């Protein structure tokens, strides 16, 4: 595939990463001035533990970054993962230890609060480390930037002087958006108290913009004159966001629907500061299984670690990819289908024409860490759904060795070394079955007509060799279900009967595949158990 062919296909592709990338081409028709890299940014507020919502923003931004590179034939780019760790802790998260420790340090910058886990020099350092570990695990290419480091080192000092020079204009933007009570105490600048170390929500008077000097009343009533430079202040969130865009030269940043108004106001403030609002996408938020917004402080919804306990990292990216402007429910029940759908799209990729490839989520996902997309066309020898059904029949006490012994009925060279990606799914299937499937399985007794059909199936299986192909078994199962003598109105009722009486579930796999995998003799034992019930 030539670069020109890819560029031409990318120009018309309707895949959302390319639609986003075209915004940047319009922003810089001749490329960014001076050959500078186009700068992508993602933001993280380390007031709580990282969750999938944090990860998805880095993934989606990376997808746009790679789409832009493809669209421009390799124009330079950078991705900054920015941690707002100078922010004051507003409330104590529900899902961390040593709550009293955090309670005693409310309103202090997160990077100046002790780590409740006792592992790092601050709460922010702990959460930043968790974020970086995860992003590194997925091999994202990014640069980590800490707000505290930038404030404390003076790297933001020139931008802070700009905020003081534009103080009145910024107030004109912000005050109409605030309630009357909030207007009385609002200031774009939050000076750090020299007494308590808290970031203060108090009115501020600009004394001298060039030196960064301001005047404010501290918590004990003292009037203090203090420079805001060198880490002695933190900007209010919307002002801080705009300042960061301008100071770093951010060209693209996406954010959640809940920040829509903030984006508008920060964009206006960026203009006051002499900069330009980045391009970006406003995405819908993840919901838990109750339909509630996922929150770092509540700890509801799935964590990154939980998804990876029950599914693959590829499936997580696949689930996140489609329709960023539509809300997604994020709970354990969506994992099995995400795994199987990912592999269906991956298998299909190598055979697709280029325009179809650019619409295939797997083309984009493989490009995040593997531009050559070496995994295209790979096929999983057993679906995850089928694997879960096998493990479900084996029971909550099943182990990997048992599973591999049954897989030997179905695939050649059935070993973890020969099939490493399947080996990963064997491990996750055992965990998923243990925690979610086994507690819900309940095999019912067959009705008289179902029992008659099961006896017929048993008789047919008795005449089959142990390694009869799955398709031959499937054909026989179909024929039994279509036989009017068994009284099924449609094949769906027959398959539901098989699932509920043999597997204990309302849904299940292609029975020909399952019987081939589980073994003809073992499947006859299941039928005998169902008839005895």
Description:
The protein is mainly α and 533 residues long. Among the domains are: 384-440; 448-532, Arc Repressor Mutant, subunit A (Orthogonal Bundle), CATH 1.10.10. The chain is elongated and about 95 Å long. Helices cover 48% and strands 9% of the residues.
Give the topology.
Blueprint: H1 3-12, H2 16-27, E1 38-44, H3 52-71, E2 77-83, H4 99-103, H5 123-137, E3 143-146, H6 147-153, H7 157-165, H8 167-174, H9 180-183, E4 189-191, E5 205-208, E6 213-217, E7 223-227, E8 233-235, H10 237-248, E9 255-256, H11 260-272, E10 282-283, E11 286-287, H12 304-310, H13 313-320, E12 328-329, H14 335-349, H15 354-357, H16 361-369, H17 384-394, H18 400-407, H19 420-437, H20 448-462, H21 470-482, H22 491-503, H23 511-518, H24 520-532
Parallel strand pairs: 1-2, 2-3, 9-10, 11-12
Antiparallel strand pairs: 4-8, 5-6, 6-7
Helix pairs in contact: 2-3, 3-16, 7-10, 8-11, 10-11, 13-14, 17-19, 20-21, 20-24, 21-23, 23-24
């Amino acid at each position: 595939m030539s670069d020109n062919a890819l560029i031409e296909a990318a120009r018309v592709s309707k895949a959302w990463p390319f639609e986003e990338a075209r915004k940047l081409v319009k922003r810089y028709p001749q490329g960014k001035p001076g050959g500078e890299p186009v700068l992508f940014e993602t933001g993280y507020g380390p007031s709580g533990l990282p969750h999938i919502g944090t990860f998805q923003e880095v993934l989606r931004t990376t997808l746009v970054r790679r789409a832009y590179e493809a669209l421009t034939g390799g124009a330079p780019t950078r991705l900054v993962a920015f941690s707002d760790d100078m922010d004051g802790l507003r409330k104590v998260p529900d899902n961390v230890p040593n709550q009293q420790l955090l309670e005693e340090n409310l309103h202090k910058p997160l990077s100046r609060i002790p780590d409740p886990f006792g592992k790092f020099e601050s709460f922010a350092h702990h959460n930043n480390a968790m974020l970086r570990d995860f992003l590194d695990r997925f091999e994202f290419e990014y640069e980590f930037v800490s707000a505290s480091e930038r404030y404390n080192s003076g790297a933001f000092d020139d931008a802070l002087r700009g905020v003081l020079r534009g103080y009145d204009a910024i107030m004109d933007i912000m005050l109409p958006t605030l309630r009357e009570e909030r207007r009385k105490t609002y200031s774009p600048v939050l000076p750090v108290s020299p007494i308590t170390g808290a970031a203060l929500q108090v009115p501020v008077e600009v004394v001298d913009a060039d030196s960064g000097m301001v005047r404010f009343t501290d918590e004990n009533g003292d009037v203090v004159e203090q420079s805001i430079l060198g880490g002695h202040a933190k900007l209010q969130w919307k002002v801080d966001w705009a300042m960061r865009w301008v100071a770093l030269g951010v060209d693209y940043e996406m954010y959640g629907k809940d920040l829509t108004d903030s984006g508008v106001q920060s964009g206006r403030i960026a203009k006051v500061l002499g900069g330009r609002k980045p391009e970006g996408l406003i995405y819908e938020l993840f919901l838990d299984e109750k339909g509630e917004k996922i929150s770092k402080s509540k700890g509801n919804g799935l964590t990154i670690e939980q998804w990876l306990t029950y599914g693959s990292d590829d499936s997580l990216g696949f689930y996140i990819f489609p329709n960023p402007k539509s809300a997604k429910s994020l709970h354990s029940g969506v994992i099995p289908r995400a795994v199987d759908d990912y592999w269906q799209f991956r298998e299909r990729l190598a055979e697709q024409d280029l325009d179809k490839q650019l619409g295939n989520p797997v083309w984009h996902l493989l490009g995040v860490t593997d531009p050559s997309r070496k995994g295209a066309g790979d096929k999983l020898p057993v679906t995850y759904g089928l694997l879960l059904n096998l493990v479900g029949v084996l029971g909550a006490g099943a182990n990997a060795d048992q599973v591999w012994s049954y897989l030997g009925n179905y695939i050649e060279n059935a070993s973890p070394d020969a099939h490493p990606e399947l080996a990963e799914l064997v491990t996750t299937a055992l965990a998923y079955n243990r925690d979610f499937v086994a507690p819900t399985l309940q095999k019912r007794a067959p009705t008289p007509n179902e029992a008659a059909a099961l006896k017929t199936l048993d008789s047919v299986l008795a005449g089959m060799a142990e390694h009869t192909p799955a398709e031959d078994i499937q054909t026989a199962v179909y024929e039994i279900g279509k036989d009017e003598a068994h009284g099924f109105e449609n094949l769906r009722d027959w398959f539901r009967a098989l699932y509920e009486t043999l597997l204990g579930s309302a849904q299940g796999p292609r029975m020909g595949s399952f019987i081939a995998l589980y073994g003809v003799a073992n499947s006859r034992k299941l039928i005998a158990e169902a008839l005895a019930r």
